[in-house]
Amino acid sequence: MAARFIRVPVITAQRAFVARGVSFILALAVTALVLAATGFDPLALGAQILRKSFGSAFGLEDLGLLFAPLMLTGLAVAVTLRIGLWNIGAEGQFYIGAFVTTAIGLHVTGMPLAPMLVLLFVAGALGGMAWILIPALARAYGRVDEIITTLLLNFVALLLVYYVSTGPWRDRVTGVTAASGRVEYDVPDLHGTLHWGFVIALIAPILVSLLMRYTRWGYEVRISGANPDAAHYAGMPVKRHMVSVMLLSGAIAGIAGMLEIAGSVHRLQGGISNNFGYLGIMVAVLARGRPIAVIPAALLIAVLLNAGIILQTQGLKTSAVLAVTGLIMLFTAVGDQIAHYRLARSAAVLAPPVPAPLAARPATEGG
């Protein structure tokens, strides 16, 4: 009997949960050993992380402020995975959403809050869509790799934000350096520092999941991603769906940037995204491209980020915090992949027996 690993095309939710749980526990164990080797008490640090993250309303609010943008950027990447594409530019689309929101917030005054927030929401979505439009058209009609184009546009968006926040839009009133003036339009608070953008971010994966599952467009997108040739043969507009999916992805990431400005930061500045766009890739990978699974995946990454912030306050260096966070992410991703394989035993393939040569029969007389 020979043993080998074979890939399971579809895994049960229970199998996936067990695999991820075991990998997460192993990651925590390795992290604890590393912390102990550097002179820290891992149990005390763990208790402090749990207490500060989940033991108070302030901790939950901070966690929610990380959770919301991660859900949106993760959803932006996950949507493109449904049609077999990669949006690596959620970071840039996040920045452009924030850029457009700041432009309107600084230069349009006197509008009532409700219509202004609707305007900012639409503008943020359109900004993200505009930033991904060229990569979408290039991929659909020119077969240009969307990974390269969306990635490179991240740097253009970042440099644009740095330029306006330290130059034309720099705050000249309060003296805040390297940041724009304050956007006075605020998304209403939900609880404490947590605003209603959290609810929008929580609803978005549910709406996209329903759109993918119960509409003709969603059905054709899923078929186009699973088998583009079959979809094209069936008359489905595969190229048009590529463009529409990427535009939807850019809109979601742009809305994340809008909510970060109007809900949390209120000033445009370099580094405003906190790498939410890049971390959204990890969220989408952990969710395996399923919109509804973005919610628990984003929560896991948010907890890890929040734990990293708490560890820094306890004297752990930034590089060590990044190493610990990356280690946990790596174990979780590996466990997610291992869940799709199982050990199978198969009998060795034996060659069929070769028949013995026929004995020469004597010639019959008169035959």
Structure write-up:
- It is a single chain.
- This protein has 13 helices and four strands.
- It is mainly alpha-helical.
- The chain has a single domain (41-315), classed as ABC transporter involved in vitamin B12 uptake, BtuC, CATH 1.10.3470.
- Strand 2 and strand 3 (194-195) form a beta hairpin.
- The longest helix has 30 residues, at 113-142.
- The two termini are 52 Å apart.
The share of residues in extended strands comes to: under 5%
Task: Work out the helix count.
Answer: 13
Task: Supply Rg.
Answer: 27 Å
CATH topology: ABC transporter involved in vitamin B12 uptake, BtuC
**Spatial arrangement of strands, main beta sheet:** 1-4
Return the CATH architecture: Orthogonal Bundle
User: In the residues, how many domains can be counted?
Assistant: 1
Please provide the count of β strands: 4
Distance between the termini: 52 Å
Oligomer: single chain
Low-pLDDT segments, ≥5 res? 358-367
Order of helices and strands: EHHHHHHEEHHHHHHHE
Helix content: 55-70%
Structural class by SSE content: mainly alpha
